[in-house]
Amino acid sequence: MKKTPRPAITLNQVTHTYFTKKEEVTAISDITFAVPQGELLVLVGPSGCGKSTILSLLAGIYKQTAGQILLFGEEISQRSKCTSYMLQKDGLLEWRTVAQNMRLGLELQKQATPERIEYAFHLLEQMGLGQFAHLYPSQLSGGMRQRVALVRTLAVNPDILLLDEPFSALDIQNKIVLEDLLVEVMKEQKKTAVLVTHDLEEALAVGDRIIVMGGRPGTIRQTTAVPEEIRLLPPLKSRSHPVFRQLFEELWREVERN
Ligand SMILES: Nc1ncnc2c1ncn2[C@@H]1O[C@H](COP(=O)(O)OP(=O)(O)OP(=O)(O)O)[C@@H](O)[C@H]1O
């Protein structure tokens, strides 16, 4: 009998409370879901419902107050190097060139071997930035900077990408190009990802599955599997598909209900 692979991510009844000097804030309550290997899961929901908290827990920045989180069936502490985090702010170091920025994660993880650096240059080419490796971030457009940030995130060859509104500061054209690149790289390299976004079109264009969260503390309101007829289309094309428009309206209503 064929063995089912372990999910890349498992959350079992996870609750997280932040304890500050002034107050206690329960950000998420009783969250349970699993992300199979190779899936791009999207979290949407109103501000403050705990989406980023889930990414922080997956990155091991905080330890959940209750419940269990597993990465490939193991506790996060055992798998600390399998995730890579990308944020809305590109976080590029202005005094380092594109190539030097791209190597940063590898250097920090003491993985800057010739093979890994070659792989990073391959990614840079794939993102259309091969000829810009010697430039400094200030010489790049916003879209180019975010592509470098995506290369840096991927260069450490993580199993799981944690993407917190990575394209939200970009204009629509750059956003769609980067969404396209993300989907292409995800498929080619069989990565697993959790993407947080406020943009429901982005969620539908890149996601395999979408979780709508709501409330304070945040809970799961609805899970929607994006149908294949949309998933198989590149993000730009999928946007004009009638099923896409219909799902967009359904999701919109669900998020608005919060
Ligand atoms: N480090 C922290 N310390 C204390 N409270 C926090 C911390 N981080 C988040 N919170 C609180 O936890 C709740 C959930 O925040 P979180 O950032 O996870 O929500 P979100 O859904 O990602 O919001 P947004 O969409 O605005 O980014 C909020 O009430 C927030 O104020």
UniProtKB/TrEMBL annotation:
<dbReference type="GO" id="GO:0016887">
    <property type="term" value="F:ATP hydrolysis activity"/>
</dbReference>
<dbReference type="Pfam" id="PF00005">
    <property type="entry name" value="ABC_tran"/>
</dbReference>
<dbReference type="InterPro" id="IPR050166">
    <property type="entry name" value="ABC_transporter_ATP-bind"/>
</dbReference>
<keyword id="KW-0813">Transport</keyword>
<dbReference type="InterPro" id="IPR027417">
    <property type="entry name" value="P-loop_NTPase"/>
</dbReference>
<dbReference type="InterPro" id="IPR003593">
    <property type="entry name" value="AAA+_ATPase"/>
</dbReference>
<dbReference type="InterPro" id="IPR017871">
    <property type="entry name" value="ABC_transporter-like_CS"/>
</dbReference>
<feature type="domain" description="ABC transporter">
    <location>
        <begin position="9"/>
        <end position="240"/>
    </location>
</feature>
<dbReference type="GO" id="GO:0005524">
    <property type="term" value="F:ATP binding"/>
</dbReference>
<keyword id="KW-0547">Nucleotide-binding</keyword>
<dbReference type="InterPro" id="IPR003439">
    <property type="entry name" value="ABC_transporter-like_ATP-bd"/>
</dbReference>
<protein>
    <submittedName>
        <fullName>ABC transporter ATP-binding protein</fullName>
    </submittedName>
</protein>
<keyword id="KW-0067">ATP-binding</keyword>
